[in-house]
């Protein structure tokens, strides 16, 4: 009996081969072996403007005045942002900035403090 990989979605062991891919009969998820290998690779590494790797909980400093959409004021250069969270997407930092509240930033406009 051939051992097939567990389902990446529901971790079911009852998967079977279907052509060049695999199928999970419990949740109906279909995938190829190449896509399961790609999903197991390291997650995206977020770097600041100077190439330093950023992690959740880091403190960063703004390196450029940033206009805030919907506000007449801007975030000034040198503003420290504490306890950042890394997220997927174009704006890859989620944080709270004193005086502005919750906001998302691009990592290219910050440096690790």
From TrEMBL:
Domain Protein YjdM N-terminal, chain residue ranges per copy: 4-32
Alphabetical list of SUPFAM superfamilies matching this protein: Prokaryotic SH3-related domain (SSF82057), Zinc beta-ribbon (SSF57783)
InterPro entries: YjdM, YjdM_C, YjdM_N
Domain Protein YjdM C-terminal as annotated: residue spans: 46-113
Source superkingdom: Bacteria
Coiled coil residues, start to end: none
NCBIfam families found in the cross-reference section: phnA
Family note: Belongs to the YjdM family.
The protein's name in its UniProt record: Alkylphosphonate utilization operon protein PhnA
Protein's organism: Desulfitobacterium dehalogenans (strain ATCC 51507 / DSM 9161 / JW/IU-DC1)
The organism's taxonomic lineage, starting at the top: Bacteria, Bacillati, Bacillota, Clostridia, Eubacteriales
């Amino acid at each position: 009996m051939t051992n097939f990989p567990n389902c990446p979605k529901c971790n079911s062991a009852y998967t079977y081969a279907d052509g060049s891919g695999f199928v999970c009969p419990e949740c109906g998820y279909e995938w190829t072996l190449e896509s399961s290998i790609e999903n197991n690779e390291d997650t995206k590494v977020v770097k600041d403007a100077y190439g330093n790797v950023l992690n959740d909980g880091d403190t960063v400093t703004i390196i450029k005045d940033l206009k805030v959409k919907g506000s007449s004021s801007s975030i000034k250069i040198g503003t420290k942002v504490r306890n950042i969270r890394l997220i997927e997407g174009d704006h890859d930092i989620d944080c709270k900035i004193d005086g502005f509240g919750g906001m998302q930033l691009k990592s290219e406009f910050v440096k690790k403090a």
